[in-house]
Amino acid sequence: MKTERTKKYPAAAPEREDGFRVRSHPILPVRERATVSFTWNGAPMKAYEGEVVTTALFANGVQVFGHHVRDGSPQGIFCANGQCSQCMVLVDGAPVKGCMQIVREGMRVASCEGSPALPPADAMPAFGEIPSIETDVLVIGGGPAGINAAIELGTLGVRTLVVDDKNEFGGKLTLQTHTFFGSRDDCYAGTRGIEIARILTHRLERYPSVSVMLDTTAVGAFYDKQVGLQQGGRYLLVKPRIALVACGAREKSLAFPGCDLPGVYGAGAFQTILNRDLVLPTKRLFIVGGGNVGLITGYHAIQAGITVVGLVEALPHCGGYKVHLDKLRRIGVPVYTSHTVLRAEGKDALERITIAKLDADWRPVAGTERSFAVDTLLVAVGLSPVNELYEKLVEYGIECYKAGDAEEIAEASAAIFSGKITGRKIAKSLGHDIEVPDEWESTAKVLRSKPGRTIPVEPAKFEKRIYPVIRCVQEIPCNPCADSCPRNSIMISGESIMNNPVFGGDCIGCTNCVAVCPGLAISLVAPDYDREAKTSLLMLPYELDASGLVQGKEVRTVDMEGASVGRGRVVAFRTSNIDEKRKIVSIEVPRGEAFAVAGFSVLEPEAGTEAPAAAEPLPDETIICRCERITAGEVRREIRDGVRDMNILKATIRTGMGACGGKTCTELILRLYREAGVPLSEVTLPTNRPFTAEVPLGVFAGASGKEGGA
Predict the structure, then answer these.
(1) What is the pTM of this model?
(2) Which helix (H) or strand (E) holds 393?
């Protein structure tokens, strides 16, 4: 029996001094927008035009959207990408995912408490025909892979339909404020993701043979070789000759006590609310996961003025790019490797988290527990391909391809190139005389590469007036610095862009390399800036709030990995000559410290407080299935009883029966099987059936009305 929790619904939280919206940002433009009025549980509220319900609620201080019917637990956001059901609300009486529903003037939004009222028994809706269309190629997903495939097809005049469930194209590019790695010629390296999204969208608009449908979700593939689409309150079928699945990835979940509290959610959801919607969802956050997603999200938070209290990674080292890790450490964010989150605590939302060190057997080490007061914990523990539709397309004999993260999890630069290659393969299959150049395949392989060797090197010293210091010591695919140097003095050693850049020539002090490096890993040094004072001048990249950087300000200098070096003084501060969003800060430091200093700290690390040890690695009361509120203990009982088929779990305890269809709990259940010593080869995965997303029965039946008679 679960404990009934108190249900609280403040009309709106008291607004913080700085408000819940981003008022200024070093990278993102903050523009005036028209407002619309709506109500939340009867209370009047304001939203910006084009905003989704969950973002509008966050902006009004509401982060609890409902309480679960099974145990009264508060429900908050988790994925903000339509993949889960945590944000289910009633809109004008119909249940919808708040993260996918645009706010309309006069909309009535309410929490889901129990079931919505059913229409009268004699209220028979009018049913219409389900429209069906044909196309040569159906591209499912308008992110970097899908757009680039459609562009390749559009150049050949191939009749192509691109559908995406958001109200704009670009996928995760629309959330990325940082500049991209990779090749400048092949995938826009050195350009910010938000700009790449605009470039690709504008390119797509050039081709008359390409049609687009936004706010449209592909919900199922069927034996008659048609694909079902849901667009608002209508349902239609598409019969393509070839389908391309480029739906990207969904974030993996993590189970620990309190993982279901409002305030514990995915890093992608955080980026969506902050970078896309310009709403501040938190003031103090912690991150679990040291891959690129976690590292980049931490940096994005700091850009918006949010305090990042720390980051934990269970492995002995972070799996993301070292330059991303070094950026956080230089700013002052503590990074705890070989650590995990033991628990999250709070009454109706997250209030604190506890971490602990792990031993060689992945068990928490007693006495290492530390607790931190935070209101948000971002889960960034990996991604899984969104490929359910691809599997059904294959099953029903529809010629299909996949690209981007739906094919292989990698960086967005790899998805861009993956789309180009796949677009040409599809065109060739349709009979067009076109080939995929051999070098494209090798380039794609490089762009998908994981970080290679880290080769620690001492910064080279030269007898020059000024020159770059390059702290890119890990093998990653990247070359913008070499392409940007007007003297060709920076070179990538060897033929592959995976190799490290080196300086060997003349430097005119243009700072192009400082301005373009995606990892902020290059600075310029003038060793003899002031001979009498024996000081050197460093020119460093800067992308944070610059309001406090004034001439003469003293700063605490740090080395490449964030260790303190000494003190420095701000001499000058200017906008980069090739990127108006990146600033160049000139710092005067003692000559003997010039080659050690890589930046300056803006945060003071917090040590946390001592906390009790964990009772056990994963207590039975830990929630595994969010939708149906199924605990680890309930799943373990079924495993002990011999259940090896997850379809039986669905029938007995309802795992996977919720609105997300098992998207968040399946991998967590497999973890419990491994924990019990059951080989995964003996476990039958849930059967994948349409629909892959919720479709109101009225919409599916062709009923008229805003919500299809749902």
Answers:
(1) 0.92
(2) helix 388-395
Domain end position, chosen among 333, 348, 379 = 379
Element containing residue 216 per DSSP (H, E): strand 216-221
Q: Is the dihedral of CA 485, 490, 493, 499 positive or negative?
A: negative
* Cβ 485 vs Cβ 509: under 8 Å: no
Nearest to 692 by CA among 666, 652, 662, 655: 662
Domain assignment of residue 452, yes or no: no
Maximum distance among all alpha carbons in the chain? 94
Q: What is the pLDDT of residues 182-202, one digit of tens each?
A: 988 888 999 999 999 999 999
- Domain's final residue, options 379, 403, 436: 379
The parent domain of residue 688 ranges over: 618-710
Q: Quick check: is 13 in a domain? A: no
pLDDT 10s digits, 100-152: 899 999 999 999 876 556 666 666 677 888 999 999 999 999 999 999 999 99
> Does any domain span residue 456?
no
Q: Which amino acid is at 390?
A: Y
Structural domain contains residue 500: yes
Is beta strand 132-140 parallel, antiparallel or unpaired with respect to 160-163? parallel
Q: How many domains does the chain have?
A: 4
